[in-house]
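We modelled the chain as a single entity of 318 amino acids. Its sequence is:
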Amino acid sequence: MEEEKLKTLEKSLDEAVLKHRLLIEENHCQRIKCKKRLRLFIETNAIKTKVINDYINNITLHGSDLIKRIYLVENDRIIREYLCGDEKVDNFYLEKEVKKTDLVYKSTLEEQNNSTNILKEMNLISENNEPIKSTEENIKRKVLIELKDLGIYKIKPKLSQLLNKKTGNKTNILISIWKYVHNKKIIRNGKIYCNEELKEILNIEKINIESINLINLIEPLDLVEIPLEKEIYDIEVELDDLVDFPILYQSKVISQLNRKTDEIKEIINMVEDRIKILKEFVEKGETFIDEHSLDDKRAFFYDPYVQEMVYNLSQHMK
């Protein structure tokens, strides 16, 4: 009966551990995503934001949690840049004289170069990385918003056309490549033998799926372009919901199982000690009694359980 209970507990514990392990693997491979809406209130001198979560949880996000940079553009020429840092901000003031927050963002050299190249391609800054100011009287203003890294990337044109997919996270892009090579039947013994299309993209004839360098196949998402008018805009974003993980099991079940496991270990240790003592008694009975009768373990021999075992052993030795 006790053995059946232990087997049931062991099975429950194995199941709980397995689910926990799967949860960890899911975070690394297919991360748990939560869709939210970044609502922008465009005013004359400010952009006010509110993050709307379509799912109920305890997470509170601010505009600066999702926005990395804001560029103010006049007649297709950038005139000001706002950088978002660790400070929690919801309102971004566009006019210098009414700017109420000092937002400083320490970007890496790679991030700076990426942003600079994008702006040069859009003809918004000069070769000296200085904003190009407009002198025209009829000024048309708009803002460009660069979102923070949300784990979603733009697939480069050739691969995008091949996979019929424009964006995705790294895991989904690899899965799409895996599906493509299987559909084209160009994979044998775990190795991809590239057809002409893949050879042109990867610049290699054969490769293992895990050796594909995605960095060369993806690029940052385009900037979000919004006219600077008194309007409301929603940007749908998808990000890791790292605060509220789904509960796969009740935590109290785990604590009960842990407590039961500790109790079982304690019983096992006690039984092993008794076995050791009894083995020593069987092998060298007289020496054992002499040694233990002279030390502080006399109480051991007054233990009813020990007395019963000694009696049973003596009966068998007759």
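As a brief sanity check on the tokenised model: Residues 156-218 form a domain with the MDM2 fold (CATH 1.10.245.10). Confidence is low (pLDDT under 50) at residues 97-112, 242-249.
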